[in-house]
Amino acid sequence: MLKKLDLDKLYEGQTEVDGEDFQVEDADDEKRPFSVCLDVGLQTTSTGARCFGALKGALDGGLSIPHNVRRWPACEKDQCDAEQVRKYIYSGHVGEYMEAMEEDDEEMYKTHFAKYLECDVTAENMEETWEAVHAAIRKDPEYKKTAKKTVKPKKKAIRMKSSQRKDRVRQKIVAFTERE
After folding, report:
1. Alpha-helix residue ranges (DSSP H) falling in 106-157
2. What is the pTM of this model?
3. Residues 135-147: pLDDT tens digits?
4. 101: which residues sit within 8 A by CB, 6+ positions away?
5. Nearest C-alpha neighbor of 7 from the set 36, 38, 48
6. Which of 24, 108, 138, 159 could be cross-linked to 33 through a Cys-Cys bond (beta carbons 3.0 to 4.6 Å apart)?
């Protein structure tokens, strides 16, 4: 959005992801920062909800959004554990879950994290992977449209008449009694 409005050079955002709260400062004698309001709609706004992760990402990206950190993960009232927030940004909690699941149930681990393993993402290199993702976004933040997948239409359910339903039930009863 900042690139579209030619504000990306003026309001760069937070370049070092450290989990600290970041607020865009007005540049003197320049355009004001792009200001938005977070509309969560019907989303539950409990502590640690995903909408607050999106808020943190937008803030770090350089948008000006009125906010309070008390609903971010690892925050209480106006106090925030920046190291814990940083851990969430880099999916440290997912890495811990991966390690625990790998120890407990190897087969479930392989099916549950199949896409991660396919891309060679493990609990050990989770942070490096997300650092690379953040660097790639910083390098080219331009939005690119992707080709939409075609979705097969669902088959329409065939409604049976009452006589057909009764006949089907009768056939099942006959087939069941013949097995015995």
Report:
1. 106-112, 114-118, 126-139
2. 0.68
3. 888 888 787 888 8
4. 108, 109, 112, 113
5. 36
6. 24
